[in-house]
């Protein structure tokens, strides 16, 4: 069944991801970011993590048939304009999600290839990376890897500087997505936190001042969700990415206003009440 893809009064965004019991990343962060940027969030949970600001202690994948039932439920009733995909845990879930994306054909697909948490915990089984590359990434309008994820996807070394980031461009294009946002947040020695928006024939650099804070839990989840939200509201890809970058930069800048946990705390999704950037 194919649902209409035209923009509606209510920009509905589906997040397909894992649940973070600590509330800082995953489904919880996605819903906050989509809501804060003016979208309506619905969700499909792929895994339940036992997680807090200090790390992940357990992961329970949701049974495949129930992931499929959740996807059918939301797509059959809601006019979902954009989909954000995060943590998928294993190959079977990746295949199921890819099949449903092909079946329902949402207008926009944003894939955050979640592999490693801010704490360093592995969130994607290593044997699932090839499935992700073959089944899901070629369907995406944009994928949003950080530097370790970019390295895992391409087989290249993790970049240590912006020149080495640029050396990934050709290999990232070969993954088949329409565009790639390569995030430079892991270059912690740099004064700026710069990302590369890799399009078919061009590369745009998005610059932002680096914020000194340990409270960056859920940054990648929130950025990709914000991009999906802005796409659902009718922005073109480059504008949606620009607005998403602006949103997450502000959320990080205000992160220390929150007091959540003893480890890597969350970003401040609602740093200015209902935050809709234009």
TrEMBL record:
What CDD domains would the database entry show?
HMPP_kinase (cd01169)
Gene Ontology molecular function, alphabetical? hydroxymethylpyrimidine kinase activity; phosphomethylpyrimidine kinase activity
Q: What InterPro entries does the record point to? A: HMP/HMP-P_kinase_dom (IPR004399), PM/HMP-P_kinase-1 (IPR013749), Ribokinase-like (IPR029056)
- EC number(s) of the enzyme? 2.7.1.49
Instruction: Describe which pathway this protein belongs to, using the record's wording.
Output: Cofactor biosynthesis; thiamine diphosphate biosynthesis
> Per its UniProt entry, which superkingdom is the organism in?
Bacteria
Q: Which Pfam families does the record associate with it? A: Phos_pyr_kin
Location of the Pyridoxamine kinase/Phosphomethylpyrimidine kinase domain:
20-268
Note whether Kinase occurs among the keywords. Answer: yes
Q: Which UniProt keywords apply?
A: Kinase, Transferase
UniProt name for this protein: hydroxymethylpyrimidine kinase
List the source organism: Enterovibrio qingdaonensis
């Amino acid at each position: 069944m194919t649902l209409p893809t035209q923009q509606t009064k209510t920009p509905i965004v589906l997040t397909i991801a894992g649940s973070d019991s600590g509330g800082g990343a995953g489904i919880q962060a996605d819903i906050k970011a989509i809501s804060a940027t003016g979208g309506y969030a619905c969700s499909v949970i792929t895994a339940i993590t036992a997680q807090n600001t200090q790390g992940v202690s357990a992961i329970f994948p949701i049974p495949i048939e129930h992931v499929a039932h959740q996807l059918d439920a939301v797509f059959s009733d809601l006019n979902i304009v954009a989909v954000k995909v995060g943590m998928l845990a294993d190959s079977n879930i990746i295949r199921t999600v890819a099949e449903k994306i092909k079946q329902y054909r949402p207008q926009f697909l944003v894939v955050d290839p979640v592999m490693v948490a801010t704490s360093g915990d592995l969130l994607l089984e290593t044997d699932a990376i090839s499935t992700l590359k073959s089944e899901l990434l070629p369907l995406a309008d944009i994928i949003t890897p950080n530097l370790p994820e970019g390295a895992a996807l391409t087989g290249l070394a993790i970049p240590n500087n912006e020149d080495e980031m640029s050396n990934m461009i050709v290999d990232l294009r070969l993954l088949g997505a329409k565009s790639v946002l390569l995030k430079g947040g892991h270059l912690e020695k740099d004064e700026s936190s710069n990302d590369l928006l890799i399009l078919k024939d061009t590369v745009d650099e998005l610059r932002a001042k680096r914020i000194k804070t340990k409270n960056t839990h859920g940054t990648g989840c929130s950025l990709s969700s914000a991009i999906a939200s802005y796409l659902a509201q009718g922005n073109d890809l480059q504008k949606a990415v620009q607005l998403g970058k602006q949103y997450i930069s502000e959320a990080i800048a205000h992160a220390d206003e929150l007091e959540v946990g003893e480890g890597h705390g969350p970003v401040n999704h609602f740093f200015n009440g209902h935050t809709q950037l234009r």
